[in-house]
Amino acid sequence: MSRERLSTQLIHHPYKPPEGFEAVAPGVHKASTVIFPNVHALRTYDWKDKSGYTYGLHGTPTTFTLEERIATLEGGAHCVLAPSGLAAVALVDMAFLRTGDELLIPDNAYGPGKTFAEGELAAWGIPHRFYDPMSPADLAAKISPATRLVWLEAPGSITLEFPDIPALVAVVRQASEGRERPIVTALDNTWGAGIAFAAFDLGVDLSVQALTKYPSGGADVLMGSVVTRDEALHRTVLLCHMRLGLGVAGNDAELVLRGLPSIELRYRAQDAATRELAHWMQGQPGVAQVFHPALAGSPGHGTWQRDARAAGCLFSAAFDASIPQERIDAFCDSLRVFKLGWSWAGPISLCAPYRMSAIRTLGWPHAGGLVRFAIGLEHVEDLRADLAQALPRLQS
Ligand SMILES: *Cc1c(COP(=O)(O)O)cnc(C)c1O
């Protein structure tokens, strides 16, 4: 399916409205119980292929519609919804990993996904290792006969290094050859959101998103998705999802459905503002380096140019090592338009300070503190003015 003109595809997405009521928005259906017409139906309806509704947990017309649209957004064939982005990450881990299997995670992966591996997966006898996502050779060296699942993330969380996904996937494919249980690749595609690049064309098996971010766009709902083109992989995710009881609610699905028609517009507006501010920030006193895949000199910039056609709403600034953390905290505290908080891709701009040396297992080259900025939908000049009034706090 064409990756162009996504807005039109999402706005004119096939949907069967109730007879005689063709509203623009799909209806919101809520259920635990779904009534069957007779015992034969109760015994034969199958939610797995969407040929029948059986129970709210296994899908409603509203969640099926959202699943179909997220699959379209990502250029995939199948989608499973989870109650948060983190639940979608954990679902993939639980669907594919068994005791004795090994998991590989990029060192710059989304933090809570690492925490799940360090907590539950380790306790279940499923060890993990971190690899350098900017080095396919490092990934190749860390794959073992027990490796079952390899996570990818583009770009990395907080520091936004853009990895060579086709090269990493090729390493996995080669190592996987001849295995009874091939190694599965799963991409955390929250940043790309199906818009910046076509994950499946780059070769990944599964694409996971926090729908909390771009698809919702409202900073008011939590949801996650797991999309694939592969029927067998989808089945594995779907069965694990059913056993865990990870359904999503109709009203939450509605919020994400409302966000989708404007996702491409929002993505491009936030992309433009973020590039402008990232570029401006690079020249400010006290700023050692700005991380944003579209900036020359940012790690993976060339790969981003080759594989992507847009960039997300995040940039990070590493400050000079001479600037103490208290001054960086004071800079963050003196911002007025930017608020302090987690998540991103909503209407409001956010920032958060990070101590990278405490986060990265394989090391971090900058001694100074780092702040990540998430650009919302405010006017870019108000955001620039806010940064400009707060930056002197770094110096005194
Ligand atoms: C936010 C985020 C998640 C988790 O999403 P939640 O809905 O907040 O659980 C996962 N991956 C990435 C890259 C994220 O930014």
- Apparent shape: globular
Describe the biggest sheet? 7 strands, mixed
Fourth-tier CATH superfamily name of the largest domain: Type I PLP-dependent aspartate aminotransferase-like (Major domain)
- The level of helicity is 25-40%
Explain what you see.
It is a single chain. The strands form two sheets. The chain has a seven-stranded mixed β-sheet, with helices on both faces. A five-stranded mixed β-sheet has the order 8-9-12-11-10, with helices on one face. It has helices spanning 6-11, 39-44, 61-74, 85-96, 111-123, 136-142, 165-176, 231-244, 250-259, 263-282, 301-307, 325-333, 356-359, 380-390; strands at residues 78-82, 102-106, 128-131, 147-153, 184-188, 206-210, 224-228, 287-291, 314-319, 339-340, 350-354, 370-374. The termini are far apart. 47% of the residues are buried. Helix 4 (85-96) packs parallel to helix 5 (111-123) and helix 6 packs parallel to helix 7. The model has no long low-confidence stretch (mean pLDDT 96). It folds into two domains: 39-262, Aspartate Aminotransferase, domain 2; 263-394, Aspartate Aminotransferase, domain 1 (Alpha-Beta Complex), CATH 3.90.1150.10. The protein is an alpha/beta fold and 396 residues long. Pyridoxal-5'-phosphate is lined by residues 84-86, 89, 110, 157, 188, 190, 210, 212-213, 222, 224, 343. InterPro entries: Cys/Met-Metab_PyrdxlP-dep_enz, Cys_b_lyase_bac, PyrdxlP-dep_Trfase, PyrdxlP-dep_Trfase_major, PyrdxlP-dep_Trfase_small. It is an enzyme of class 4 (lyase). Belongs to the trans-sulfuration enzymes family. This is Cystathionine beta-lyase.
